[in-house]
Design goal:
The chain has four helices and seven strands. It is of the alpha/beta class and about 190 residues long. It has one domain. Strands 1, 2, 3, 4, 5, 6 and 7 form a seven-stranded mixed β-sheet that branches. The protein is globular.
């Protein structure tokens, strides 16, 4: 029974952290600016068809866990809609953390796949962390992660698109141990 209470508490903390995401225009541009400082991200910002930016993703769990974040989707320099990120996990995990995430779309096909309504990053997705120590969270269900000493060092692992997408994260805080299964799922709502 105590384990169940811890699970509920962890999920409430994740949802509460995600609730602090007040998705203002400044929040999105500030997040993009943070990623733009990374030499690994600069070519993607310059050449990508578009991207999704999630200023705050909250993650927590104890055996059962989850993540949540809301973001903005951009194609060819224009905001095309909003996206929600949800991830449920079960397995060996404990803790909580917050991070920002950007997903770059190589071309219109990748953008269309992401905005199709219900997209999921597979466990084979490669995630590159742009801050030191973020390797511990870099993954969507056990995926490999790039290593980094931080955006200012220019010593980040090189990355390429995988299935037309490239994923970068920036750790904001927290500590979490995770060896769990599950992928990030995204929903898209077009701008009106």
């Amino acid at each position: 029974m105590k384990t169940f209470r811890w699970i509920i508490l962890a999920l409430v903390l994740v949802l509460a952290a995600a609730g602090f995401n007040t998705a203002l225009a400044d929040e999105y541009s500030d997040t993009v600016d943070i990623f733009a400082k990374s030499d690994a991200v600069k070519p993607f910002l310059k050449n990508a068809y578009g991207y999704a930016v999630f200023p705050m993703v909250g993650k927590g769990g104890f055996v059962v866990g989850g993540s949540y974040g809301s973001g903005q989707v951009v194609a060819r320099g224009k905001v095309t809609g909003t996206a929600k990120l949800v991830k449920a996990t079960i397995g060996l995990q404990a803790g909580g953390q917050a991070f920002s995430q950007m997903i770059f779309f190589q071309d219109k096909r990748a953008y269309d796949e992401f905005t199709s309504g219900s997209f999921e990053l597979g466990a084979d997705a490669t995630v590159v962390a742009i801050t030191a120590g973020a390797q511990a969270i870099a993954g969507t269900g056990g995926a490999s992660a790039g290593v980094s000493a931080g955006p200012a060092t220019a010593k980040q692992a090189p990355t390429n698109y995988h299935k037309g997408m490239a994923v970068f994260i920036h750790a904001k805080g927290g500590l979490m141990y995770e060896a769990a299964v599950g992928g990030q799922k995204f929903s898209f709502e077009p701008s009106k």
